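EI: anyone free to look at a 675-residue chain?
SC: sure, send it
EI:
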Amino acid sequence: MAEATKAPAKAPKLADPMEASIEVSTQEMIRRAQKLQIETVFDRAVTMKPCAIGMQGTCCKNCAMGPCRLPLPKNGIEGEDTRKGLCGATANTIAARNFIRMIAGGAAAHSDHGRGVVETFLAVARKETKDYTIKDPAKLIQIAPYFNVATTIEVDGKTLDRDLYEIALGVGEAAIAEWGKSEGTLAYLKRAPAKLQQKWEEQGVKPRAIDREIVEIMHRTHMGVDQDYKNLMKQGTRASLADGWGGAMIATDLQDVMFGSPSPLQSEANLGIMKEDHVNIIVHGHEPLLSEMIVAATQSQEMLDYAKEHGAKGIQLGGICCTANEILQRHGVPPAGNYLQQELAIITGACDAMVVDVQCVFQNLANVAKCFHTKLITTHPIAKMEQENVIHIEFDEHYAMQDAKRIVKMAIENFNNRSADVMIPQHKAKQIAGFGVESIKYHLGGSFRGDYYTLNDNIINGRIRGIAGVVGCNNARTKHNEEHITIIKELIKNDVIVLTTGCSAITAGIHGLLTPEAAAVHCGPGLAEVCETVGIPPVLHLGSCVDNSRILLAATEVVNAGGLGDDISDLPAAGSAPEWMSEKAIAIGQYFVASGVYTVFGYHMPLEGAPVFKDHLYNDMEKIYGGKWDCEPDPIKHAHKMIAHIDKKRKELGIDKARERVLMDMADRQALGMD
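SC: here you go
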């Protein structure tokens, strides 16, 4: 009998580059990776299918009696929903617990980032580090009163300015207390419109301390504790507000104080920013503490000379994810790509070092780096990798520049270890980035008349239909960049100005939407006219994902400017996270909903297995806070849901009809305070 022969192993299923992404350089790098037999996230997304019950939100693994899986019956719920876990937990309880655990994870990530920023800020205030300083004293003076820190002192009947570092110490000590104080509520809640603060008070959701709200979610979702989906969501709301109006907002403000508040600047975006004849260093993650020092180190004459000694013409620094946005908005350092492009930066063969900190970092980077000469360097004590080829250089803010130079030297010394096979895609786009609450004021009104009145007036007269925040991640379960770009283009085509952060902002830059010239190509006539007159892009880059707090404050400025209601929920505005994937997105979404914003997610929401809980988020929330959740995977429908909401708010404000233009004389201008 002939010996049976083994069937040949099946070739692994690979991603179709054209189906995986709409972005050309990404397609090129996927092809290159497949040719080199290097697996990427795009290939893994093809071979690994998501858990159907997990996607419905009704799989509970919070105790060892589970996992308890409660799939939605194929014919839906007919009559009473009798599905229960072993302990009797209903689908609504399970879905709510899972949902607020995502809020806890996301709020913990952003707020722990904020805590690290405050700890470094305190080192600056105590003069324990020479590498960081106070670069924006005006911002420090602006935020000090929210922490009840005096900026002046009375001496012999005269009012004098306090020492800047005394103010900083007071702010830092008050800020760090926000994570663990035993009484009261968060200091920054009073920055919200008064009507919104009243809603939070009435609902009993004002956060007390950041860590407390996150810990309480973990307690409530432990087996056998909170079993009421509405009560669970109240705690989810508290924790999300502790992120948006607490940890994330504090992080943004103190980064501005230490590193400088962003102002618009020109840069580029995409993998094509890398240079074959330069040392290429990619910083990736979310905390700008070390990356600020790496920027300074790469620009120092000492390091530039060292690079030339090793045969390089210079040093090219680039970023991935929100570390990219941080150094872009303050220094013009170009992003090399967004979340799904991180492996591809190494696959160019030209990445001499990739330096990572926390959040959104693929462990597979280590496997990809093994195929090239790239040094992969972790820098944070809570974010290490198990692979042997990963180098750990722990960052210490007291020796920040020393650590940065050590990393830059390592990259330079690695330059000559490249193979001859370098392939950098020749695709990149110009962009204008670095807008903030203050710079938007300046662009609208100049140095002396900076105000949001101009924006409000153009919304009232109909040139600008409304405001949209389009933010968030990429997701390998969707076509890379397609939802972001399709939604943004549809919004600006319909005269909706877009504010963007995070990987969505990088995506908009890569696809050429962050330039004033984009207005003439993509915008409706009203928005195009405003952009041309003011000289701004139709899509404003507001920074990293912690900088979503800038959108909250910009919305508050619009309310304060008058004419568009007295709460954020009154504004013709909507939010979107088209390709979301992280727990941070859920935390951000909930604090926007609880701040009064209609918020639409793409892809899917883990709610379909609990229709009653889903209805609570999609409908009841609007009655409570003025904002609500929605989900729409089709990008055109997604955009038009936002536009329909904006139109509804315009009608409620009585500005749904175009206002007749009136030529104003001096008396009219004086009456409006414009003289």
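EI: The mean pLDDT is 94.
SC: 👍
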